[in-house]
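Long-time lurker. I teach an intro course on protein structure, and each term I like to show students one example going from raw sequence to a predicted 3D structure in token notation. This year I'd like something fresh instead of my usual example. Would anyone be willing to generate the tokens for the chain below so I can use it in lecture? Attribution to the forum is fine with me.
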Amino acid sequence: MPLDPQIKLQLEQEASAGIPKLYQQTVAQARAGMLARQRLPGPELASEQDRGIAGPGGAIPIRIYRPAEATGSALVYFHGGGWVLGNLDSHDANCRNLAQRAGCVVIATDYRCAPEHHFPAAADDAYAAVAWACANAGTLDLDAARIGVGGESAGGNLAAVSCLMARDRGGPNIKLQWAAYPVTDHDFTKPSYREFGTGYGLDLASMVWFWTHYLGPDQVGSSPYASPLRAESLTGLPPAIVCTAEYDVLRDEGKAYADRLRDAGVPVEYRCFEGANHGFLSQPVELASRAFDDIGALLRTSFSA
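-- Reply from a regular --
Happy to contribute to a lecture. Here you go:
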């Protein structure tokens, strides 16, 4: 399918404006650029609350989004940004859309980012947030049996990794995992990297930039807690909803993760959004709204199963 016209226009406008690629910027410049990016506002919800929870490296900021029709289910959410960019504000609209469409509480987690904190800091924070949500379900008015994890891009990586950690460490029990265009492998040789490595938003050089900052001086990306696709086994992980974008360097590793889960006997719903590029859920385009409808419906069904 051709690239979505609205997405194509945005890419053309960025190119004509001469906006530097991520790998051409400092970390501070890239972070400011993400926060300044144009977004459609998210829907109004019944409540939202900022607080901090105990983590392995200090307090972890979280934001709890509660829709009017909350059903007791919850999604512990991890933002995208290559483990380097993003915070509770950068993906606020996405969390609101998920909460409204899925009818679940969304617990957004602001994990420690690189390069200040290298792997596995973000992964450890993600696991700590999931464990906290499950342990405190009663006081949060949640059903402990219906708490899932989810995220976009690097956040999708952290969702998958927190599921691996929970399995390997004997808990907590996670109802489901949702990953949108996730990073699942420290490998730049897959066909989608060759097809979409330049000109479609997220490019190959920027992914190298992200991984380099995340892994730090050791540069060991083979750990399954960095590259969940490299886990020896994916047996025993929670049911999954995996979403990819057609014009995305990460498309193939996202699909490979879905395929490996399915081969391991894990129930999987896989969606490749045609005409979309990486990060399209955060863009002011109609395709994003339709995708949130689809994702929300899938989450509702999975939480009630």
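Some talking points for your students: The chain has one domain: 5-304. The two ends are 33 Å apart (CA to CA).
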